[in-house]
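Lest this sound abstract, we think one record worth quoting, the chain in one-letter code, the fold tokenised, each line plainly labelled:

>
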Amino acid sequence: MDAAADNKDIKKVVQQKYSLIANQQKSGCCCGCGCGDDEPSTDYTVFSESYDSLKGYTPDADLNLGCGLPTQFAQIKTGDTVVDLGSGAGNDCFVARAETGETGRVIGVDFTDAMLDKAKANAAKMGFSNVEFVKGDIEDLPLESSIADVVVSNCVLNLVPNKELAFSGIYRVLKSGGHFSISDVVLKGELPDGLRNKAEMYAGCVAGAIQKDDYLAGLTRAGFVNITVQKEKEVEIPEGILLGFLSPDELQAYKSSGTGIYSITVYGEKP
């Protein structure tokens, strides 16, 4: 199978997973893993962080899918135009709206219809006229160039097969002098094949992650400057998940290999 066809299949898996999650009350998943009839039913919210203390937090829009708090670090100002990539049910958009105020504008982009429907319903319920949600692929953003003061994203770009296209799209839609704050999952060391080759894990944050150094280098190649890791934490995947993809011997080898899965929140500016 060629790369384009493989990437199309990955996106289809992600859409299916997130459609399922959108139709649940709370996902109980880390970026989508642990959701499905063939997967363990344990709560695997090992990536997500609490939004409770953030102004604008809307529990109905929080499906526990994030791996950080990018809006907390995004330095959003009153009147800014903010774009949220992979906006889901609208959680980060509503937090951003609390920062940018009524004079600002918030645009959420997602490619899953069920998530868009949920986000639009949440926005309508709160009467927000300056928060909108549009359908689009992060590799080919349906937005004007130089539209955003700030771009945020929470545990989504790791699901995108072609990260170079995603990074270049962020650069294009940002205004000169604009910036991004993105929370994502990265690796230090190589995952075992048993994890990386499972499409289910691709929709669960892990197999789509790339090396931290490669991630940061990709942002530099896209043209961003002043790239800074604002927050970093190691994520421990429960053995109940790992044993679904690795044998006991493979699990022990993995645990002693020094490989790490990390949640990072990274900042960068467009010159």
Observations:
- Residues 32-44 have pLDDT under 50 and may be disordered.
